[in-house]
Amino acid sequence: MNNFAEELDLSWVAPSLETPEKTSRNWGKNFGFDYYYPLVSRSPKIKEILKLIKKVAKSNASILIQGETGTGKELIAGLIQFISLRHNKPYIKVNCAALPESLLESELFGHEKGSFTGAYQTRIGKFEQAHEGTLFLDEIGDMNLFTQAKILRVLQDQEFTRIGGNKTIQVDARIVTATNKDLWREIEKNNFRSDLFYRLNVVTIDVPPLRERKEDIPLIAEFFRRKYSSELRKSVRGFTEDAIGLLKNHYWPGNIRELKNMVERAALIVVDEGEMIGCDELAFSGKDYFAAGGRDRRKNSGGGIAFNTLKLEELERESIYQALEVSKWVQKDAAKLLGISPRSLNYKIKFHKITHPGWKRNT
Fold this sequence. Notes:
Elements: H1 4-7, H2 20-31, H3 44-56, E1 63-66, H4 73-82, E2 91-95, H5 101-109, H6 126-129, E3 134-138, H7 145-157, E4 159-160, E5 169-170, E6 174-179, H8 183-188, H9 194-200, E7 203-206, H10 217-232, H11 241-249, H12 255-270, H13 286-291, H14 312-326, H15 331-338, H16 342-352
Parallel strand pairs: 1-6, 1-7, 2-3, 3-6
Antiparallel strand pairs: 4-5
Helix pairs in contact: 10-12, 14-15, 15-16
């Protein structure tokens, strides 16, 4: 890890920004510390993606980013925006899975005052806000067919009308989309329009899961260790050799997001000042610990649950909470990690009175 700084080559990012040092300052200022880590890679697959981004970022082509939950699709979209010719124009993000169907159309296209019950004032939609800039539609595979049809029309005609309005609004926005779904399979199931798919995937970027880029796991883990050590002003010395072995052999269903949360928990709560992160400080369940090559019996297990209790209710609450953290509080993704239906998870969230400020309403 001594040559960590050399792994972070920013010289090609936004070459209009005079120097790599200035590029680094602007990149961090505009997007935050986390946005460096898409560039931290030894993986040939990631290096090919970065080469492709350099080629297409300055065009106006629509880009579809595909990959599992937690692989960093949103961060790659941010990198595309940052080095594009629209980098000083609006960059608007919409999570299509986080909004109910009844609100998504209004969110994207806006509405006129009085167009429906509760429309007390005119609302400017995301397309209008993104004029001359970039609109990032995350989880496009979760969008309903009716809204897909309206998106297709905007892409074809570069115009739309607000809900309840008669005025045609011209819009010039570059579209970048992302999904964790197989859109071909969704097309076969009649859940996604093939004509919209062909419009969106002028350029496709397939982001590999973390388990397919094992050479990057120690580097990314070290990146997050330095991040949280700096933020907490706490000396966490690094990872033991055995801990690195576990990290490299884990399956990582939550990908980089799961790794980030694991390192944050270890640095924040578990590791004492001046100590290293070892196997016992990593929040692996017993099953995952042994599957990743762990040999000694764990002092604790269960994704960070100390098992000073055997009450099933408390263990269930902790498991649900951790799954929600790993899935960035998207209930559908958390349900998938837990192996239960979204409806069952919603019931359990209400039962355990789990809330999050990012949810529109308390669940």
